[in-house]
Design brief:
By secondary structure, this protein is of the alpha+beta class. The chain is built from 13 helices and 16 strands. The strands form three sheets. Strands 6, 7, 8, 9, 10, 11, 12, 15 and 16 form a nine-stranded antiparallel β-sheet that branches. Strands 2-1-5-3-4 form a five-stranded mixed β-sheet, sandwiched between helices. The longest helix has 18 residues. The protein is globular, with a radius of gyration of 24 Å. The two termini are about 35 Å apart.
Length: about 500
């Protein structure tokens, strides 16, 4: 796995599970015929009886899944096979052999995670049929097959409910209302009631919006109390869900319009369809003693840009399009590996270059028994060009994925001018969806950048001297950037590149 198409990321917040897909069926010395279990986004299982499992490629297994599900050809591009566990997620290339990667899973965990040895020993991946990170959203809007739309809907819904996709309350309610329509049918006044929705609220809204107090006062308040804001807002949004013109409202009618509506709304989230990685960033110094520390973040990378998300607070800290950043990664000896993001900003009203340091967590202490690897990026290394690191970190995977996404964008057919990463994404080369609202800038939206919550390095460069401020940035520490816009930068403000529709 070279990190170009294989993506390692922070798994969703689902609890640990024990699924037997690939590695467990390979405990026998010889596997002539075996049942492989492939999991879909809604946790249903597709059993496959295959021959010569150890030599089967991901492409062949992908084709077998499509045949069982009777999916159209577009599914070849829209979905990919993933090996997923609570510790690591890897999107497989068509040439990868899932059985062999499953057998090598402990080695991958040692390479790309900081998991303790006992967790590594117990971890086992499952084979999952999920959305392809490199499938453009504009093509997703062109899909008409209901089963393909349903699979995409189920995956997006799972990410929203698990708060992997942070959403404002209004958006959670709008998305939850569409889930109500899919699961409960057309809205009927007075049925269901808000109290009925309350019983299974976590099926429609993220868990943090469903939390309620415990104890005597909560119990007393719950008796005969009015519906909470969560279920009442959900009920109001449910009543506003529009039925497709000419659709049959009876049971069994096509749900494609509602799947499509959910996906279209999800496309407004800037991190939809991203690959997720785990990291940490420095906190700003606070208090009399100027204590800082670090905070855990999820780094979301897609074809459109990079987003750094606060893993605890569930909001965006920084959102950058590829046109707005330069990047590199370093893996110095005896130190943590780092992904560097450089972008334009301001310091007290003065334009400056900003550097964000994203730490890629490693196991504490050296691992001399683990084979070293060579890397191709040595330009910004502080150890003078040393190209061998103690372990291949996720920083390298993130850097490679950024580079690969940019290459894909440059080799794809010419597209219309790109919208903001977080703005509504109309299909490029096709008419925009009907009744699409213009971007609405929300103060305090969870998808707006919060640069004040980040500790960045502000610098300018004049000759050999590094100074704190300077006019417009025209040079960069890093040569790695989108070449078509090199030398043309725009200042990233907290709400400029992240607008909520």
């Amino acid at each position: 796995m070279d990190g170009t198409e294989g993506n390692a990321g922070q798994p969703g917040p689902a609890e640990r599970y024990h699924r037997s897909s690939v590695s467990s069926v390979g405990t026998r010395a010889s596997v002539a015929a075996a049942d492989v279990l492939v999991y879909l986004a809604d946790d249903t299982v597709v059993p496959l009886a295959v021959e010569n499992l150890p030599s089967l490629s991901a492409h062949e297994l992908h084709r077998a899944v499509r045949e069982v599900l009777q999916l159209p050809d577009i599914a070849l591009d829209a979905f990919a096979l993933w090996l997923v566990s609570p510790l690591l997620e890897v999107q497989l290339k068509p040439k990868h052999q899932p059985y062999k990667l499953g057998r090598q899973w402990p080695e991958l965990l040692l390479r790309f995670t900081d998991a303790p040895a006992d967790h590594v020993a117990m971890d086992e991946p499952s084979l999952q049929f999920r959305r392809n990170v490199f499938f453009p959203k504009r093509r997703e809007l062109q899909i008409h097959d209901e089963e393909v739309l349903r699979l995409l809907y189920e995956e997006a819904k799972g990410n929203v409910l698990a708060a992997r996709y942070p959403c404002d309350v209004e958006d959670c309610e709008a998305l939850g209302a569409l889930v109500c329509r899919v699961q409960l049918g057309p809205y009927q006044p007075g049925q269901p009631t808000a109290c009925t929705l309350r019983e299974k609220l976590d099926s429609f809204l993220p868990a943090h919006l469903c939390k309620r107090g415990h104890g005597l006062f909560a119990a007393l308040r719950g008796r005969g109390a009015k519906a909470g804001t969560g279920e009442q807002g959900l009920l109001n949004a449910y009543g506003q869900v529009k039925e497709a013109v000419g659709s049959d409202s009876e049971h069994g009618a096509s749900l494609s319009p509602h799947y499509r509506a959910y996906l279209l709304k999800s496309h407004e989230l800037p991190f939809y369809g991203c690959a997720f990685f785990h990291g940490e960033v420095d906190k700003p110094a606070q208090g009399f003693l100027h204590r800082g520390g670090r905070k855990p973040v999820a780094v979301a990378i897609s074809l459109e840009g990079v987003h750094v998300i606060d893993s605890r607070e569930k909001h965006v800290l920084l959102g950058l399009r590829f046109q707005e950043l330069s990047w590199d990664h370093t893996s110095p000896e005896e130190e943590e590996s780092v992904l560097w993001l450089e972008f334009d900003g301001d310091n007290e009203g003065t334009p400056v270059n900003k550097l964000l340091k994203i730490y890629s967590k490693q196991k504490a202490g050296a691992r001399p028994s683990h084979p070293a690897h060579s890397t191709e990026y040595g330009k910004a290394r502080p150890q003078g060009g040393l190209s061998v690191a103690p372990s291949p970190p996720q920083a390298e995977l993130m850097s490679s994925l950024i580079e690969y996404c940019i290459e894909l964008n440059q080799t794809s057919e010419p597209a219309a001018p790109q919208e903001n990463v977080s703005g509504p994404t109309a299909a490029t080369g096709s008419p925009p969806p009907p009744a699409q609202r213009p971007p609405l800038r929300r103060q305090g939206s969870v998808v707006c950048s919060r640069l004040q919550h980040l500790s960045t390095i502000d610098y300018v460069e004049e000759g050999q001297q590094i100074k704190r401020v300077k006019p417009k940035r025209t040079t960069s520490f890093f040569s790695r950037q989108l070449s078509t816009v090199q030398g043309s930068y725009t200042v990233v403000q907290p709400t400029d590149s992240l607008e909520q529709g």
